[in-house]
Amino acid sequence: MIKGIEIRDAHFPGRAPIDAYGNGGFRFADMSHRGSILCLPSGIHGWIPKTPPILGLDDLTLVLEQASDIEILLVGTGMDLRRLPEDVRAVLREHRISADPMSTGAAVRTYNVLLAEDRAVAAALIAVD
């Protein structure tokens, strides 16, 4: 019997700075990923937000699962700054996570600085062209 190709969720099992962004993806750890990503304590995960750039609670399931290890969530909302819906902000506050929405470029730069300082930071980064 021939075994088929197994498709797995994109996941880099470590914390790494983002080396570049644009053209619909990101470069990190000598690799590239096409599409949006979540940078979490468990690693960097491929991520498909349901209605970008507006995020809902369903988009942040992995973030909430790791909430005990996250103090700051940087949200890269694409080219333009978009506010997080109040229900999302309220749930993040309940988990003691400070959420800071900003353009994806600003979120990448801030994430890299906070990661270098060994802060409890995570990022939800919507890919930009």
Q: Any overview of this molecule?
A:
The chain has a six-stranded mixed beta sheet with strand order 1-6-5-9-7-8, sandwiched between helices. The chain contains three helices and nine strands. The N and C termini lie far apart (42 Å). It has a single domain (11-125), classed as 3-Layer(aba) Sandwich (Hypothetical Protein Mth938, Chain: A). The relative contact order is 0.23. 21% of the residues lie in helices and 31% in strands. The mean pLDDT is 92. By secondary structure, the chain is an alpha+beta fold. The longest helix is centred in the last third of the chain and has 13 residues, at 104-116.
The biggest beta sheet reads: 6 strands, mixed
Text of the CATH class: Alpha Beta
Q: From the structure provided, what is the oligomeric state, counting identical versus distinct chains? A: single chain
Instruction: Calculate Rg over CA atoms.
Output: 14 Å
Uncertain parts: none
Helix-and-strand structural type: alpha+beta
Q: In whole angstroms, how far apart are the ends?
A: 42 Å
Beta percentage is 25-35%
Protein name: Mth938-like domain-containing protein
InterPro entries: MTH938-like_sf, NDUFAF3/AAMDC
Organism: Daeguia caeni
Topology:
Elements: E1 11-12, E2 18-22, E3 25-28, E4 31-34, E5 36-40, E6 43-47, H1 61-65, E7 72-76, H2 86-94, E8 98-102, H3 104-116, E9 121-125
Parallel strand pairs: 7-8, 7-9
Antiparallel strand pairs: 1-6, 2-3, 3-4, 5-6, 5-9
Short description:
This protein has helices spanning 61-65, 86-94, 104-116; strands spanning 11-12, 18-22, 25-28, 31-34, 36-40, 43-47, 72-76, 98-102, 121-125. The chain has 129 residues and is of the alpha+beta class. This is Mth938-like domain-containing protein.
